[in-house]
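Sat 14:20. Reprocessing the chain from the morning session after the first attempt stalled halfway. Input below, unchanged.
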Amino acid sequence: MIRRLALLCPDPSEPTYTSRIPAPVQGYHDLFARFGVEIVAHPWVAPVPLDVDGVLATLAWGYHFHPETWDRILRTWDAALPLVNPPDVLRWNTTKTYLQGLEAAGVRVIPTRTPARSTAEELEAAFAAFDTDELVIKPLVSAGAHQTIRLRRGEAAPPSMEGRMIQPFLPAVASEGELSLFYFGGRFSHGVRKRATGSDFRVQPQYGGHLEVFTPDSEALALAEAVLAAAPEGIVYARIDLIRRLDGCLALMELEAIEPDLYFQFAPNGGQGFGEAVLAHLAGVTAEV
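Finished this time. C-alpha cells:
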C-alpha cells in the first residue's frame, strides 16, 4: 500500500519561488490526504529519503537554472525508488529538441529551428523560412517563459547564444489562446485555455495571462492523443499545449511532463483523477518488484 510520497520542490536557496510554493504544496497535501497518503515536501537538489513509497517531480521548479545537476540526478536515479514520471521520460522532456523528434514521428508541431547559435544571420534566416515578421526565441531548457524573447523584424537582434530555439510568433496566443489538455494515466482529465492579455505575449498568470475552462473539440483531442502515442512510454501525467499556427492548423507548442501547473481548480473533483493515476502507477510498479 502506498502511504508516503516525496514531492520534489524548489531549492530553498533559490528565492524565485519562496512566496509561490506554499499554496501548491498544500494543494498536494490536501489531494493525497483523500487517499490516506502523506506528502513530504523535499528539495529536488537533495537526496530523497528512502522511507517513501514513491516520488513526484511536479513541483521541481527551478531545475532549468541548473540543468547539469538535474540531468545527473535523473541519470543516477535509484531504480528502487519509483519516480513519477520516470527518469528517462523527464530527461527526454527536459530539452525542447523533443519537439523535432515528435515531428519526425508525424506529430504536427510549431515550426522550430535549433541552430548552434542564435546569431543575427540565423534569426534572419528564420524570418524568411517562417515567412513572418515576428519571432519567439527561448532556451532549449526552460520553464515558465524564462528568458523568452519576442523579436520583430527590424529590431536589434539579442546577443547570440547557444542552446536556443527559434519559432514564429503566433497571434493566436491572444485570440484563441494556448489550449492545454491534461492527461492522467493516459486519460483526458480537463482542458484550460490560456490567453495573453494586454501588451505581454506570455500566457502565464504572473504575466497577466487569463485562464478559463476549455472543452476540447475532436481536432484538439486527436492531436493531443497523437502526441501521447508518439511520446516515450511511462507518462503518468502530462499537459499538452496546443496553438493555432500561421497556416491555420492546430499544432503542438509543448508537452510538459516534468512540473506543469495541473490547474486542479479546473479539474473534475479537484484533481482526484491525478491522485488515482499516480497511485495506480506506483501500485503496479511495486507489484513488479
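The chain has a mean pLDDT of 92.
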